[in-house]
Amino acid sequence: MAGSAFVIQDELQKLPAMPGVYLMHGPKDEILYVGKAKILKNRVKQYFQKSYKKSARIQQMVSLVERFEYIVVDSELEALILESNLIKEYKPRYNTLLKDDKNYPYIKISMDEDYPRVFSIRKRKNDGAKYFGPYASSEQVNEVIDLLRKTFHIRNCSKFFKEGELLERSCIYYDMKQCDAPCIGRQGREEYLFRVSQAVDFLNGKYEDIVRELKRKMSKASDNLDFESAMEYRDLIRSIEAVQNRQKITAYDQEDRDIIGMRREWSDCVIQIFFVRDGKIIGRDHQFMEIDREDEDQEILGTFIRQYYNGTPFIPREIWVQTEPEDGKLLSQWLSKVKGRKVTICTPQLGAKEKLVELATTNAGILMNRYREKYREEHKKTNKAINELQELIGLEKSPVRIESYDISNTSGALNVGSMVVYVNGRPKSNDYRKFRIRSVQGPDDYASMREMLERRFEHGLKESAENLKNGKSDELGSFSSFPDLILMDGGKGQVNVCEEVLEKLGIDTITVCGMIKDDNHRTRALLYQGKELPIDMRGEAFKLLTRIQDEVHRFAIEYHRSLRQKDQVRSILDDIPGVGLVRKKALIKHFKDIDHIRKANLEELSSCPHMDQNSAQKVYDFFRSK
């Protein structure tokens, strides 16, 4: 029990001399701090000894402690794992926490299929597929996938077919000469798998043979006066060399490793990570941390490694750091256990290896100088906004995950729903979701909202049950991660719909509020438990709510617009004689929308890929006859 029933000095005497994790609770029974200990009795007592030197932050934390609890485990390694999980779950105020929750993209080749596909994915799984990455951005992934399609003709369509059970028609990529149509038997499986093996070699950094073959084809095309093909081969070679140059680094071996550099100033710290795969840098990441000025470098690095690699989809064989982290051997044991093979944390001292760690450290310093003030100010405002929201609604703890929903339609046609997610006051776009409303005809926003919410939370419950069944109860996906706060873009009716859905599904841990608008369509108040809670329009909470409101509208409208455009493309361009699927897609890709196609002159239409003079004339005449 918290409060007077818990006498700290008496409870200190009851602590066991065993390894475990301790949790410090504050005046509102919130968790202030989570730590691990080789011997709980010794470690927890230190916090309350005046003679023990403590940082200013820890001194402040101790002054707020009303009670503590602990969990005993069998080993220090188990304590480390449990500590990481609890910090990730509770995000205690006085623990050193990472500020970003990024999920970097991978390239996946689905080796479990008869004709493997290549596509991007955010979460790595043990499913027999080949994964490459992580990459620094989705743009870089898309560029590489596009290069694979053009060079090796590896499919990325979602069509399902097997050897001996082929399809009747090929897709547009065959017409665009980016796929050799194995789906209809124009390419044998053996030849296709050879192409896949070449793509795997390319992703592993083996460029020489591929570039040599492309140069041979370019020369042959040039000799045959096929200059268009020669130029295509030339552009492919340049693209490959550009990717190669971005990844270039001296390869000591073909091992996977992360290189970590740290730069700190006062209470700010930046960590720079280079991802090295098969001896080549293929991406990088950086993280901002708030630290205590008295924290040691070893302690900061140990904290970072525990949090950064807890739940990550990929752990490299080696991690290079500038100084040995606290509990380095223990961290190696933990990472090895998670990976299923030995993971080494080392500190290079000489030569080129040390230079690489120094390079990461230098980059961390550059980021520190570039973003420190901007990030600190944004972080301060975001925290203030979250705290203002918590106080306004009267929540026991700050809402970490906030979700908001909106419905969009045109006079009841093409009903769609959108879900946006904010974590710690920042958008988490990976968790955004779109819903095509299935059961509602006509402009019934309440019924559409009900369907969207039911699908969202039923999916989340199902995902949680499957994780529990498979022994992955600590894994959270975008659906099984339930929000602390739901903001409905509407008044009492929308709130009632949401509360009814949650009650029906037996979910009683989520706070639901409605965003009430003023004449300028800005959120002037929150509707909570039937009461209006006015918002200070000069405060940070108002700015955060405005950002969420604008974002959920934008996301819904963009999805609805894309569906309208597809519907418009089907209904108009299909009526033009001589314009089939390939030319229709080429027109939309080139001109972006119907209005630009309608206004285009004959010369502009003829310059569009896949359009000859005759088909351009038909398109031109069709719109002039309207």
Structure, explained:
Helices cover 45% and strands 18% of the residues. It is of the alpha+beta class and 626 residues long. It folds into 5 domains: 3-90, GIY-YIG endonuclease, CATH 3.40.1440; 106-247, no CATH class; 257-372, Nucleotidyltransferase, domain 5 (2-Layer Sandwich); 401-563, 2-Layer Sandwich (Nucleotidyltransferase, domain 5); 574-624, DNA polymerase, domain 1. The strands form 4 sheets. Strands 12, 13, 14, 15, 16, 17, 18 and 19 form an 8-stranded mixed beta sheet that branches. A 5-stranded mixed beta sheet has the order 9-8-7-10-11. The model is unreliable at 246-252 (pLDDT under 50).
In CATH terms, the superfamily of the largest domain is UvrC, RNAse H endonuclease domain
Q: Into which percent range does the helicity of residues fall?
A: 40-55%
Helix-strand category: alpha+beta
What distance lies between the first and last C-alpha atoms, to the nearest angstrom? 78 Å
Total beta-strand segments: 19
Main sheet specs: 8 strands, mixed
Give the C-level CATH assignment of the largest domain: Alpha Beta
Query: How many whole angstroms does the radius of gyration measure?
Result: 29 Å
Q: Indicate the proportion of strand residues.
A: 15-25%
**What form results from the Cα inertia axes?**
globular
Total count of helical runs of at least 4 residues: 19
By CATH, the topology of the largest domain is Nucleotidyltransferase, domain 5
Tags for this model:
626 residues, alpha+beta, GIY-YIG endonuclease, Nucleotidyltransferase, domain 5, 5 domains, 5-stranded mixed β-sheet, 19 strands, 45% helix
